[in-house]
UniProtKB/TrEMBL annotation, chain B:
The lineage of its organism: Bacteria, Pseudomonadati, Pseudomonadota, Alphaproteobacteria, Hyphomicrobiales. InterPro entries: ABC_transp_permease. The keyword Transmembrane applies. The chain crosses the membrane at residues 21-44, 64-82, 94-112, 118-139, 148-166, 200-218, 239-264, 284-309, 330-350. It comes from Mesorhizobium qingshengii. This is ABC transporter permease.
Length: 521, 376
């Protein structure tokens, strides 16, 4: 492959188009990637980044357009073809078998029949030489998300690709782990390899990328050098207009306010061999404040949410208290009736039933709390009332949709999330627990959701936000606690919190560390 | 080498979803014509005898209603189960137990007469069916057993239990040794709707009432919403605060009670005593009825009438053409096959794949695995 070193780019894409039914996901995309550059692909969720990358990796076939590899037109009909050309990909969602070792997982994807011992040795050598230490004999189920990502990267590197595609690689990493990854990427660039780096985190793009291609609504809206841009100017290109900054008024009188949500010594055994136990979690959320829970995905946040929401009951009724009443033995309906509201991480299939209309999805979480308004005598649903209420929420949250009362699955992620958050806000809950409020939501909608959460707290409610997005937590929280391996650190007042301190806790530094900081402050 | 793969369609066609039962019926007719031709019978003649003649006179329509009543009653109950993604395959057994429970009054207390007898029998029939359906529900919620297997196996238990009863303790002492109970007294017989016109009894009215009530339940009531949420997205159902175990019992008890009501209505109305066999497979045919009716109670009424006709037609071709009445089973089987086939093709399209090029990635295959529940 080294033969063709004249001025041609490693990869050139011309007019690549992909149409799904009525939606043009990618519309005449042009993209050049030179040898030895880190090229950012920027865009909001739904801008067409994933579709474009899937076409480059052979998972999707384009409707029209051309791809040139080393100056030659190629058809990438399958991931196998892509690998042969020298394109490797690290997916955002890993495809690893948890019950196998790292080396076994790598062997499965290499598929060339070489003995497991030699694969393990090669993987170990490669991982240390790139500063991504990895024990090939370890069970994937025992590894952290960051370590799992290393397996994916090593697996990709073992195939000696010329172009490596990374899809939102830092979304599962602590800031310190991300730094490590950036070093590795710079090392790869110095070896002449090219990297296509997909992200919506502007700061890191500015930090490591040489060039950027920005997508919006399936079209390329610009190529630029991210180092010469500001985060604000990049955001403008991505979103198409100015995103309103979230305003957080100082929380007043919090010290004396009543705790509305109290969690005391919450402990939960792992439900499956691969889920995280909760270890003695205690936390108070007072009226008028927003508490953020940071943490790398898979450290018990999902288990914690289920326990607080009442989808899973507690043995000790006093381990969860809502508005001063023991709620540990109450179901989610009982906890809602005490004034709590919940927004889960998964929108489709958890927070909403995909094949049901929005008005029916309104009933999903409010059939008991608004029993009188929505359900008549004999259990008859008042369809007029739920329709009117859902239209009210749609208007209040500016939910964009194609039909008056569409199925939940027909909405984009951001719009559905606005509806789901709005559905709970509409009740004026006194306790609101939200898991990943803006995961996969475009910047405009995310800002709106964040603002409404702050406003809810300032009107006297207790708001608990679990998020992997540190920027988000720093934007909206009055205090940040960190969850690591089923344990929760003491909340750190936002004035004292820094990315570094939170990052250390996310990486597993002693929870006592936070207490320390508080005392010295 | 080529192979077939099912690929999920991004959108379902609403038109073909509605047309699917009719397409399935047309395909059944075509396949049936081929079958009759192979049997050496002119298909047109056979179809006239099978589908037209059994319903050409008013008394025959009454016979149709008699056959359709249990099918509709059972199928509307099953539709609630299947909407909740709970698979009760044992309605045949619940039908039999309903018949046995309800018959206990006229058989054990033949002197007890009056207007109370019949309501009590019907109630006992429902209790019997529901109680028998509670067994697989209990096993599923308590031990996580597969309700398809347990409910199906309990059918054979019920059949043998009935057989033992009518040959043993409940046999008519004056019955010349025939395996059957005494004939029910007048007050234990379900009256006919229009005695002058034909034999159809109140069982058909029960079926229509049940269909309307279940339709209201499913489309207008919170309980029906609960059924649909838990069936389509159980995690969202849990988030809503609906209990899956409670739903398993609700669905089994409701469908069991309706199957039991169908059983006692059949015994009390159409037969008039207990016999070793009281059902030509109504409980199983009702599964076809439920799917042919698209799990919609009103569609099930229409589907029940169609399937009832296959029973009558089977008897007709047997007497007129000397073809085995097993042909009815063949028609029912083909109908279910084509209905499920059409539904699958509404959700998926077939792709031919050459194996020479590459291995497909596993994700696509997993996604394409057709599930029975998708057939809704």
């Amino acid at each position: 492959m080294g033969a063709n070193q004249d001025g041609t780019n490693l990869l050139e894409v011309r007019g690549l188009t992909k149409i799904f039914g009525a939606l043009t996901a990618c519309d005449h995309i042009d993209l050049d990637i030179a040898r030895g550059e880190i090229h950012a692909l920027l865009g909001e969720n739904g801008a067409g980044k994933s579709t474009l990358v899937k076409m480059l990796f052979g998972s999707l076939e384009p409707n029209s357009g051309e791809i040139f590899w080393n100056g030659q037109a190629v058809r990438i009909t399958s991931p196998g073809v892509a690998k042969k050309l020298g394109i490797g990909m690290v997916f955002q969602h890993f495809s690893l078998f948890e019950a196998l070792t790292a080396a076994e997982n790598i062997a499965l994807s290499l598929d060339d029949g070489s003995p497991i011992g030699s694969i393990a040795a090669k993987a170990r050598a490669l991982s240390y030489s790139y500063g991504l230490p990895l024990d090939p004999e370890s069970m994937v189920g025992d590894l952290s998300v960051g370590e799992r990502q290393r397996i994916e990267i090593i697996r990709c590197l073992l195939q000696t690709p010329q172009l490596i595609i990374l899809d939102e690689p830092t979304s599962v990493l602590t800031p310190q782990e991300a730094d490590k990854l950036f070093e590795t990427l710079e090392r790869l660039r110095s070896e002449g390899k090219s990297i296509l780096y997909i992200s919506h985190r502007l700061e890191e793009v500015k930090r490591i990328c040489d060039r950027a291609t920005v997508l919006r609504h399936g079209k390329v809206v610009g190529h630029c050098n991210p180092r010469e841009e500001t985060a604000a100017s990049l955001a403008r290109m991505m979103v198409g207009n100015e995103v309103q900054a979230v305003v957080r008024a100082p929380a007043e009188g919090i010290e004396t306010a009543q705790p509305l949500l109290e969690i005391r010594g919450l402990t939960r055994k792992p439900a499956t061999p691969f889920s995280i136990p909760l270890r003695n979690i205690s936390l108070n959320v007072r009226a008028g404040e927003v508490i953020g829970i940071a943490g790398v995905a898979g450290n018990g946040q999902g288990e914690f949410f289920e326990s607080v929401s009442g989808e899973v009951l507690q043995q000790d009724a006093a381990s969860v208290r809502i508005r001063g009443k023991d709620a540990g033995g109450l179901t989610i309906t009982g906890r809602r009736l005490l004034g709590a509201a919940f927004v889960p991480e998964e929108r489709l299939g958890h927070g909403a039933a995909p094949r049901m209309k929005l008005s029916e999805n309104l009933l999903l979480s409010r059939h008991a709390t608004d029993g009188k308004a929505f359900v008549g005598t004999g259990g008859m649903v008042k369809s007029g009332a739920i329709y009117a209420a859902s239209q009210r929420i749609i208007a209040a949250m500016d939910v964009r949709k194609s039909a008056p009362d569409p199925e939940a699955a027909a909405l984009s992620g951001g719009n559905l999330q606005k509806f789901i958050v709005g559905r709970e806000l509409d009740r004026r809950p006194s306790v609101m627990v939200v898991n990943q409020p803006t995961w996969g939501v475009d910047a405009g909608a995310a800002a709106r959701i964040r603002q409404t959460l702050i406003e809810l707290s300032r009107s006297g409610s207790a708001v608990l936000v679990i998020s992997q997005d540190l920027d988000e937590l720093f934007e909206i929280s009055d205090a940040i606690a960190v969850m690591h391996n089923g344990e929760l650190s003491k909340p750190m007042p936002i004035a004292e919190a820094t990315f570094e301190k939170v990052g250390l806790l996310m990486g597993g530094a002693e929870p006592g560390h936070a207490e320390h900081t508080l005392e010295t402050a | 080498m080529m192979r077939l793969e099912l690929v999920k369609r991004p959108q379902r066609s609403a038109l073909f979803s509605a047309l699917s039962p009719f397409i399935a019926f047309a395909l059944t007719i075509i396949a049936g014509a081929i079958m009759f031709a192979l049997l050496g019978v002119n298909p047109l003649t056979a179809f006239r005898i099978y589908f037209i003649e059994p319903i050409s006179q008013v008394w025959q329509l009454h016979e149709l209603a008699i056959k359709a009543a249990p099918l509709i009653l059972i199928a509307v109950g099953l539709s609630v189960c299947y909407k909740a993604n709970i698979w009760n395959i044992g309605a045949e057994g619940q039908f039999i137990l309903g018949g046995i429970f309800g018959s206990s009054i006229p058989v054990l207390f033949p002197q007890f007469e009056g207007p109370l007898v019949l309501p009590l029998m019907l109630l006992l029939g429902m209790v019997g069916g529901a109680a028998y359906a509670a067994i697989p529900a209990l096993l599923k919620t308590r031990f996580g057993t597969n309700e398809i297997l347990t409910s199906l196996m309990l059918v054979y238990v019920a059949q043998l239990f009935l057989d033992w009863l009518v040959r043993g303790p409940w046999r008519d002492p004056q019955g010349h040794g025939f395996p059957q109970t005494i004939q029910f007294g007048d007050s234990a017989v379900l009256p006919e709707l229009m005695p002058d016109a034909g034999r159809a009894n109140w069982g058909f009215a029960f079926a229509l009432i049940a269909a309307v009530l279940i339709w209201i339940l499913m489309s207008r009531m919170l309980k029906g919403f609960e059924v649909r949420v838990l069936g389509s997205s159980p995690r969202a159902g849990r988030f809503a605060g609906f209990g899956l175990n409670r739903m398993v019992f609700f669905a089994f008890l409701l469908s069991g009670a309706l199957a039991g009501l169908a059983g006692i209505s059949e015994v009390s109305g159409a037969i008039g005593q207990l016999q070793p066999v009281i059902s030509p497979g109504y409980g199983f045919t009702a599964i076809i009825v439920a799917f042919l009716g698209r799990l919609n109670p009103l569609g099930i009424v229409a589907a029940g009438l169609v399937l009832a006709l296959t029973y009558l037609g089977g008897e007709a071709v047997q007497s007129a053409l000397g073809i085995s009445d097993k042909v009815a089973r063949v028609f029912q089987g083909m109908l279910l096959f084509f209905v499920l086939g059409c539904d699958t093709l509404i959700h998926y399209r077939i792709r031919l794949i050459g194996l020479a090029l590459t291995k497909p990635d596993g994700a696509a295959k997993l996604d394409a695995a057709p599930k029975l529940k998708e057939a809704r």
